[in-house]
Structure formats: structure tokens, C-alpha cells
Amino acid sequence: MKVAFIGVGRMGGRMAARLVAAGYEVRVYDPSQAAVDALASKGAIASKSPAEAAQGAEYILLSLPSPKTLRDAVLGESGVLKTATDGSIVVDFSTVDPATTKEIAAIAAKQGIQFVDSPVSGGVAGAENGKLVLMVGCSADLLKKLQPVFEVLAGRVVHCGPTGAGQLTKLSHNLLTAINTVALGEVLTASVKAGANLEVLCEVLTAGLAGSKMLDYLPKTLFTAERPANFAIDLMHKDIKLCLDEFSNLPMPLGQLVLQTYNAARAKGLGSKDSTSVNEIYEELLGVRLSLPSAQ
Ligand code: NAD
Q: 6-phosphogluconate dehydrogenase NADP-binding domain location, by residue (predicted)?
């Protein structure tokens, strides 16, 4: 079965590699030659444009950094709609806004092509291990047709509702994740500055109501010496903004504050660091570093 994969960065690259390993013929496109070469060495076929990758593909999959790049890759001069054939299914794993999704889906439908939003959570580890959580926006019938591909990539598939419902769910998920990240950074740096032991703090918080999946995650990211850039501050900033735009007529005071913290991190040149490294703002202000010797 032929599959196209457009955008093979941290997430898309790992997902495409799993599809190659599962026996799919995978044609990949990415403006980064290094990203394409890495997959070609695993058995994927390199393409020169999204249109070339999409030619003859039953499933056309995308994992892109923004609504604009998604628009270009699908609707642009050499976008997938130039060659995709009637009946092929386009699945977007990027995080974008519901309005962009609905607009692209309506244009694709006029060509007989179905467009599905399926943003993901689970990070690079989930992409690598095929354990992503997929938040899918499409009809129940169409979802059934996607099962063969989804079972290679996902540990859990949640049908969120019609087109755009997956993106609405994902933006809500990421705004809460960002709020949790900054809430932990603010309190932990203050507490360590005041003399608390981070290891003891984590033990107690984890046992109480202040525990969270984000706190469990920090020993793999912020608390390590290397601080691996799994999910860039720039991408989280994009998601917070998209979510706040979506809820622009609603009171979102915490979201706005957290956006300002991410703005500050980007203004300091931290945009390509991991989203949890937004807390380096607090670390610098207070002159402390959140690190656990046991973290790796
Ligand atoms: P990334 O920057 O590592 O990868 C994006 C890739 O898209 C890059 O290789 C880039 O060269 C390519 N690209 C840029 N413009 C393109 C275009 N016009 N056509 C084709 N390819 C293009 O980003 P990522 O971390 O893999 O994230 C991809 C998407 O998944 C984003 O929407 C992000 O918000 C979402 N996401 C990421 C994570 C994570 O943990 N990294 C988790 C969940 C969701």
C-alpha cells in the first residue's frame, strides 16, 4: 500500500519510519534534505515536492509546523491536491486551528478527497514506539478506513467528532500542558530558591494532589543535564496562540499569562529549546537551576 508523508521532522520522521518498517511503500517530502536522507536510508522513497509524493498514494499524511506550511503543502503550487486522486485520504497529524482544517477539508472534498484532522500527543517517544494518542476529526465510517495506518502509529485513537474536533481537543490539551509547565516552573524555582530540596519536593508533590503527568515528565527533560529538545518552545507558543485565538471572546487570564512567559522565552532566543525550558526564565531571575542528579 502506498503512503505519502509530508514533513518528516521529529514527529513525522519517526512515524514515517514505523510505516516503512510495517511494509508500506512510503514516499517522503521535506525541505530538509537531511530529514529526507535519514528516511531514505531506512527504505523510504525521496520526493521533490508534496505533489510528487502524493501521486498514486492511498493515504497522504502530514506533520507540519504551522497552519501556513500545511496550507502550502496541501493547496500550494506543488501541493498534494495537484496530484491526489479521487478517493485518497489526507490525514493531518500537525497541530493547527480548526478553521484552517475545515477550510482545507472543504476544498479537498470538491476534488473527492477526504481530509482528516488527527493531531497527536505522546511526543517523540510515542511517535518512536507507535504509542501516540490520536485525536481524530472525521466521520465514524472514514475512521474505520484509517485503522490499518493508525494501528502502526497509535496506542490510542480517540474519535473527537466531525472535521476540526480533533484540533479543538488538541489545542485545549496543549494550553493546559503549557499552563501546567509554567505553574510547576514558577513554584519549583521559588521553592528551591527558598531552600527546598527538589528531590523531596517531587516525592511529596507526586504523592499529593499537586502531582501531574507534567511533573512526572520533567525528570526526562528539564531536570536532566542535557535538556533534550523534544517539542520546541516555538511550537508550544504556536499552539497557545492558536488556542487563545480560538477562545478569543472568552476569559482566559491564565492562558494569556502563560503566553507572555513563552513570549519572554522566545525573546531571549530560547525558541528552539524544549517547551519545558520556558522555565529557564524563572531560573535566570532567581539564580537557581532545577536539576535532579537521578534524572536522565
Ligand atoms: P519539527 O520542526 O521537528 O518537524 C517539522 C518538519 O516539517 C521539519 O522537518 C520541516 O523541515 C518540515 N517542513 C517545514 N515546512 C514544510 C513544508 N512546507 N512542507 C513540508 N515539510 C515542511 O516539528 P515536530 O516536533 O515534528 O512537530 C510537527 C507537528 O507536530 C507540529 O504541528 C507540532 O505542534 C506537532 N506535535 C509535536 C510534538 C512533539 O513532541 N515534537 C508532539 C505533538 C504534536
A: 2-161
